[in-house]
């Protein structure tokens, strides 16, 4: 089962994608909700707000402890910021992933955009990407691999136990990244069915 951190930010769309893959999922609001999970998604939203709520609830320490006990993590956008060990112009929160990350690196909300990219490790066809006040990842530490490098930054990275994306796969029709994370968590999914959308329409 995969959990969705449900303190603030975009939860429903992630749940919908997991549901479409036939993966059991649960909202995580308190420590007990982490019991029995193989993976936890930390969604996009507002990283300062999410970080504060994690500290107030004590979930920050619980998530770090569960991660060290095997819980896989995926952070999208604000979630990626919370996972990073080095935050340009900010304070690290969970500090589990050996990368630097710069908040709001593309400008304001008005500078949000959609694009398409090949991410060979994740899918054999182009994947739609949605950037919303996205950060940029850089300075990958030993053990961190880039899944998608663009210009001067990394848009998707992973180590053996953490996935981080600066964009929002849950806001696109593609299930590819959710399937990829499920596999990382040891959960098998039905074979890829990307029917219903076409790269030329995105
Ligand atoms: N810019 C936001 C932050 O710094 C993240 C935006 C997002 O998650 N879409 O928290």
Descriptive account of the structure:
- The chain is globular and about 45 Å long.
- A hairpin with a 3-residue loop joins strand 11 (153-158) and strand 12 (162-165).
- It is an alpha/beta fold and 202 residues long.
- It has a single domain, classed as Class I glutamine amidotransferase (GATase) domain (Rossmann fold, 3-Layer(aba) Sandwich), CATH 3.40.50.
- The protein has a 7-stranded mixed beta sheet with strand order 2-1-3-4-12-11-10.
- The protein has 5 helices and 12 strands.
- The model has no long low-confidence stretch (mean pLDDT 94).
- It binds glutamine.
- Glutamine (GLN) binds at residues 44-47, 77-78, 81, 103-104, 132-133.
- Glutamine binds next to helix 4.
List the helices and strands and how they pair.
Elements: E1 2-5, H1 12-20, E2 25-28, E3 39-42, H2 47-57, H3 59-68, E4 72-76, H4 78-83, E5 84-88, E6 97-102, E7 113-117, E8 127-131, E9 136-138, E10 145-150, E11 153-158, E12 162-165, H5 176-184
Parallel strand pairs: 1-2, 1-3, 3-4, 4-12, 5-6
Antiparallel strand pairs: 6-9, 7-8, 10-11, 11-12
